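queue> holo job accepted (zinc ion)
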Amino acid sequence: MSIDSVYVPGEIPQTYLAQGHTQREDSPGTKKSWAPAPEPLPVPVMDNHTHLDFGVPGAGTAAAALDAAQAAGVRGAVQVGTDLESSREAVRLAEEEPRLLAAVAIHPNDAPELAAAGTLDSALEEIGALAARPRVRAVGETGLDYFRTGPEGMDAQQYSFRRHIGIARRAGVAVQIHDRDAHDDVVRILKEEPLPPAVVFHCFSGDAGLARICNENGWYMSFAGTVTFRNAQGIRDALAIADPSLILVETDAPFLTPHPFRGRNNASYMIPYTVRAMAEIRNADLAEICTSIAANTSAVYGSWD
Ligand SMILES: [Zn+2]
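queue> job finished
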């Protein structure tokens, strides 16, 4: 695969669909074409979390998706791996394409299966080797998912999460956390482990209570299209009180398309819809919030150039 590979929407690996992304609220759209382009942002930001290999609108290339993003004021993205294959792919893309950095990990919902097969430790070893590459600036998505994985998988998930935190710390890069219905245990484990230089709650799904904990600990909150969803007042309450120096933005594309375009595939060029909603929620000036998101993003991942 390369930056000029065509990524067809809907061609999401079955393993990932099993990872909890089949729910209605975060399914990729059934309309596979590009939604209208937003007015570009006044100050460019980065998309902190995307999966180009899960599909680009219009069956485009990764390069086309990044061109569209740039035209909308989204200068680049973190391409995120969820298993060994997609983590290797993320590194390949980021080494080829200056607008991408990579994150590598075994998804929490894969951990129990790999543990049962006796291959989790060897997979984590390879993740550790990939994390040392210069274009890899985060280990993730890792964390806990109690929505999709039952009690029988908790031990393996928690073990895998702790190991990923250690990998990030040794590599000196951020950890990107997938936290689904598991806030308490995620916070407990973060408090028990020596931490890497930055902790990011990817697709922040907590309420004001969790935002307060993040504020106190200097943990970053990356907001996705979910902050625009009608039923997500808790996430908006969290954003309203989040420390401005800890706020990031992401798509989790092709999932979590912002309102009013749910039903379409998400992509990095749609970030302005989310950022404008964020500015409104915080009663903030759009250029100011963009400037601070851009600075926070550099603080977490370093420079793309
Ligand atoms: Zn993701």
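queue> The chain has eleven helices and eight strands.
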